[in-house]
Specification:
single chain; six-stranded antiparallel beta sheet; five-stranded mixed beta sheet; Nucleotidyltransferase, domain 5
Length: 531
């Protein structure tokens, strides 16, 4: 970062960061000779970041001073490290419920969140590069020498970014404050806290609040501000790099034009005029003897950005991205071309996203499909992966997608019916916990209007699979999948889940299993995304 043209902007924030840490008492300067010789101080590291808005414009230049957590020793200066983050399915479900119930929402950001939690052990850090000790403070120095910095250390008085336990300490502190205010931590989503008149979703230092009235939100945020330094950013407008817009008809649209623009630039297609109407036309194969790549952009980095896009706001590219991701270890020319096709498709739909337009039918349903041995005609016949089938499913609430997936099955199915049944079982592993979460919403809050969901329907377009799922017995030809894939039978028998046949033309999950012609793709995209 300090070799870039905007170096001076980072240097300004380096000074601010050091001054903030000292003025708030997060760190203090001590003489190296004053600490026991057996204590090994941690190396100081600068972390630089250009913080961006969803449209990818730079909001600010961020310089953060961190200790080298890799030098810590488990059991000596850290113990617990796990800190959960909210799943996007929970965020989507909450946004849908806010539309159905007319909830107010607010976004809150905690300023230097980690430093607002206590530290659980004694730790020291070297004086950071670029600074020297001067009159009990740190002074910026352009000199390459360390000056007197070897004679001093920084004592860590509070939890700081970079420590292995930093995330855990912060989450524990915030959870304790919410529980003290009467919230209950969800049994199914650790980052969801529920009160009878309010919901809170946590993603590290970003929080979403939902309540019936602004007064409730103001009261909760005011109480939290007594313990934390936070800023209320008004209605939810941008969350985790996603622009959440209010549509003309009062619904919500989730878009990521900034990320799409970055992807277009990353693969060198800014000046490219060609656009495609679909993200994929063929099923890819390994092509070990094929032509090598011609472009220099990082294939894995492009897949990483596309994968985040596909899992957050663009399910229409999920199949295309997943099949390109399979070849990240050894991409060839055909895989490079496939990625560029996805980007050309995105270029024509840059301002499009995912419209939350819930229906009045509050049911949690699932559409599931499988492509039996779909790789057989493309992969080498002597490779076992050539007979793997692909699973695709989407779980909807009030006809809005909240979770989708496109992936290869882990074992080999022996028939189309078996492949479809395996896919159904995989989708049920997500559907059943989502039902539990939805019931928790209903029982613990007063926010949901209407009847609680009594059952979910899994829509399947293979009649053999429907018959197999509804039959209360094992059959000789399917006995070998009994142990692993009949886990959801009790839910079917109890009536909590219903299995229903659906025509292929109405099967939303078809878009996650194979390349589709434009007319079919466009029809399913409209049903999923609303455009």
């Amino acid at each position: 970062m300090l070799q870039d043209p905007d170096r001076s902007s980072f240097e300004v924030d380096m000074r601010r960061e050091v001054n903030d840490l000292l003025s708030t008492g997060t760190v203090s300067i001590v003489s190296r000779s004053s600490i026991p010789s057996w204590i090994r101080p941690l190396q100081a590291i600068w972390s630089f970041r250009r913080k961006r808005a969803p449209d990818w414009s730079i909001l600010k230049f961020k310089a953060r001073l961190c200790p080298h957590g890799g030098m810590q020793i488990e059991g000596e200066n850290y113990w617990h490290t796990y800190a959960p983050v909210v799943n996007w399915r929970t965020v989507r479900l909450s946004l849908i419920l806010s539309l159905l119930s007319g909830l107010k929402h607010r976004q809150v950001d905690y300023v230097s969140a980690y430093t607002q939690a206590p530290l659980d052990c004694e730790l020291y850090m070297n004086i950071p590069p670029g600074f020297i000790v001067h009159n009990t403070t740190l002074k910026f120095s352009n000199s390459s020498t360390r000056g007197n910095s070897n004679d001093y250390l920084l004592r860590l008085n509070k939890n700081v970014y970079g420590l292995k336990q930093a995330g855990n300490n912060w989450f524990t502190e915030l959870r304790g404050s919410l529980i003290a205010l009467g919230f209950t931590q969800s049994l199914h989503e650790p980052c969801l806290f529920i009160k009878n008149d309010c919901l809170v979703i946590i993603y590290v230092d970003d929080c979403l609040f939902f309540a019936k009235t602004d007064d409730i939100l103001d009261s909760i945020i005011a109480k939290l501000s007594q313990n934390f330094n936070l800023t209320s950013q008004g209605d939810v407008g941008a969350f985790l790099g996603i622009d959440i817009r209010r549509t003309a008809d009062g619904f919500l649209e989730l878009v990521q034009p900034g990320l799409i623009g970055k992807i277009i630039s990353f693969v060198g297609l800014e000046a490219e005029s060609n656009e495609h109407k679909t993200p994929a036309t063929t099923i890819l194969h390994a092509d070990p003897q094929g032509a090598n790549r011609e472009q220099t952009w990082n294939y894995r980095a492009a897949i990483g950005m596309l994968n985040y896009l596909s899992t957050s706001t663009r399910p229409d590219i999920a199949f295309a991205v997943h099949q390109c991701a399979r070849f990240s270890s050894n991409p060839k020319r055909i895989h490079e071309i496939a990625v560029r096709r996805i980007v050309r498709y995105l270029k024509g739909t840059k301002e499009k996203g995912y419209i939350l337009r819930p229906s009045t039918t509050r049911t949690l349903d699932c559409f599931v499909d499988a492509d039996f041995a779909g790789l057989w005609s493309s992969e080498l016949a002597n490779d076992p992966i050539s007979v793997k089938s692909r699973t695709g499913y989407v779980i909807t609430f009030a006809n809005c997608p909240i979770l989708w997936s496109s992936k290869l099955q882990t074992e080999i199915a022996l028939s189309t019916t078996e492949a479809e049944y395996i896919a159904m079982s995989q989708s049920a592993r997500d559907l059943i916990p989502m039902r539990d979460l939805l019931h928790e919403f209903a029982s613990a809050t007063k926010l949901i209007v209407g009847d609680t969901v009594t059952h979910s329907t899994i829509f399947e377009d293979n009649r053999g699979c429907v018959d197999l799922a509804n039959a209360p017995k094992l059959r000789p030809r399917t006995k070998h999948i009994g142990l692993k894939y009949h886990h959801f039978r009790s839910h079917v028998l109890s009536g909590a889940i219903k299995i229903q046949w659906i025509a292929t033309k109405d099967q939303l999950a078809d878009i996650f299993t194979k390349p589709l012609p434009f007319s079919t793709f466009e029809s399913l995209r409209y049903k999923l995304l609303g455009w």
